[in-house]
Amino acid sequence: MFITDCLSTFGRYCIFMRKVFGLPDRWRSFFSRTLAEITKLGVDSIPLVIVISLFIGAVITIQMQLNVTSPLIPAYSVGMASREIILLEFSNSILCLILAGKVGSNIASEIGTMRVTEQIDALEIMGVNSANYLVLPKIVGFLVYMPILVSFCIATSFLGGFFVAMFTDMIPVSRYVYGLQAMFQEWYVWYGLIKSLFFSFVITSVAAYYGYFVKGGALEVGKASTNAVVASSILILLLDVVLTKLLLQ
Hints:
Order of helices and strands: HHHHHHHHH
Number of strands: 0
Distance between the termini: 36 Å
Strand content: under 5%
Helix content: over 70%
Shape: elongated
Radius of gyration: 21 Å
Number of helices: 9
């Protein structure tokens, strides 16, 4: 029964995505809506990204310093290890898990409310491809802005560790900065950006799917929002394993 339900949901999702990725009826309206979604989903997420990254970067640096106490390990290893953790996992996987709660629930509740208030039905009556009109600008907008959020996350996380080095005596600033630069691999940055693009598509498309097929009233909209966040988080973790194997082998 569980496998059947999963296959049924996946098939319905694929059919929904086929409707979403049709050509827009009005390109001017599509671009204007996309810019609005970039502001709502991307720009409005910057304060959350900065605050979380600042503290997580500081915590990672503190924990690395507390656990790297051997005199055989050079002091700059703290900065280098913190950099690898931030580039490989936090700035993409963990960040997208956090954004799934904010962006995903926002999309699911917005589209779900439009469904229960029959606004989507009105669009269908007017001959508009409602899935394409409502969902495609969200997917494209968040996909376009995701690399900027990742860049903010990386920079702010490094800054959090820098503040730890500057305002405490746990690690010299020069050693921390040298650790950030030591044995740097540019591919790790591209690796994080590539993963974040896949994750951003999962967040927006899955949330839109759950919101689009809501049935009932306000209670069902809340349930759909919760289901969207849970499903997005599971898929992000699954994709994280697959992409890590493919991109870092």
